[in-house]
Structures are given as C-alpha cells and as structure tokens.
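User: Please fill in residues for this 169-position structure.
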C-alpha cells in the first residue's frame, strides 16, 4: 500500500502557522532592569534593618502575602502571619550582616544567594551567633514593589551534640 505524501503538506503548514501565531501572541517577559535590581537590594536591606530595629510591621512589608520561609531545623512557615510570628519569637538580634554573592532576575521574578552573620541576645541574657548561607526568591508585587516570596537559610556551624545522659546507678 502506498501513501500519498501531498496531503501531509497542508496539515504541516497549518500546524506551523498555528505554532507561529501562538508564539507571536505570547506576552513579552518584562525586562529585569538595573532599577529592579536596586529595588530588590533595597528590599534585602529593609529586611535586615527592620529585623535589627524589631520593627515587625516594617519587616512584614518585605515579604509577600504567601511567603514561604524555610529556616533550619523546623518545618516551612507559610504565609505572612506565620513568618511574622516566627520573627517575633526569634532572640533579639544585635548584629546582622548580609553579603550578596549573586542576584539575577527575569521579568517579575528574581533570586539572590549569599551569606550572613548574625549575633543575638538569648532569653537568658547570654550572647549567641551564627553564620550561614541563604537563597531567596523575590516577586514583583501588584504595586510594583519587590518582596521576598521564598526564603531558605542554613547554618554553617556544626550541630551541637546534646549533653550525655546521666549515668544510672
């Protein structure tokens, strides 16, 4: 049985035309500009300074309504209210340094990767500190501001072993 090849040409032409039209009608991805990068950097700095000032309302403006925080050693926190409650319960932060190693964006999404050093006063009055790394995803909000949308961080310090159990006699 022989197949005629000519009927395939109109089908292929219609398919190519349809794909071409769909691609040309796709919305253009907005450019990620130097101004966007500066706005993301400003959001990072506001996160840092509002935490130091214990300005929880100000800090809440640096995260999206559906933010997901993934701190070390606990389940992810979903939503602005859960994120704010976590930050409020954190020991008093006395120093917080952030170094951005990479920041990249495309359209309405950006991410950064970096390292941090934090010093705290623990509830018993003793000092504590941590160093580590983080990665954040930012989204441009409806009001054109940039907010942390997904944030994960990890400690670079070794896990402290629990004290040995008392010996039984």
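Assistant: Residues filled in for all 169 positions:
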């Amino acid at each position: 049985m022989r197949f005629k090849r000519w009927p395939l040409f109109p089908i292929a032409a219609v398919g190519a035309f349809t794909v071409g039209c769909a691609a040309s009608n796709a919305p253009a991805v907005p450019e990620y500009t130097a101004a966007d990068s500066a706005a993301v950097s400003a959001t990072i700095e506001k996160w840092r300074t509002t935490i130091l000032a214990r300005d929880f309302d100000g800090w809440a403006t640096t995260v999206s309504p559906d933010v997901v925080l993934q701190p070390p050693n606990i389940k992810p926190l979903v939503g602005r209210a859960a994120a704010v409650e976590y930050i409020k319960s954190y020991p008093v932060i006395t120093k917080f340094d952030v170094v951005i190693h990479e920041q990249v964006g495309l359209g309405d999404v950006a991410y950064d990767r970096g390292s941090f050093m934090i010093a705290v006063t623990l509830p018993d009055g003793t000092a504590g500190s941590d160093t580590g790394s983080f990665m954040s995803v930012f989204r441009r909000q409806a009001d054109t501001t940039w907010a942390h949308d997904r944030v994960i961080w990890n400690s670079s310090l070794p896990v402290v072993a629990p004290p040995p159990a008392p010996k039984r006699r």
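For context: The CA atoms of residues 8 and 69 lie 53 Å apart.
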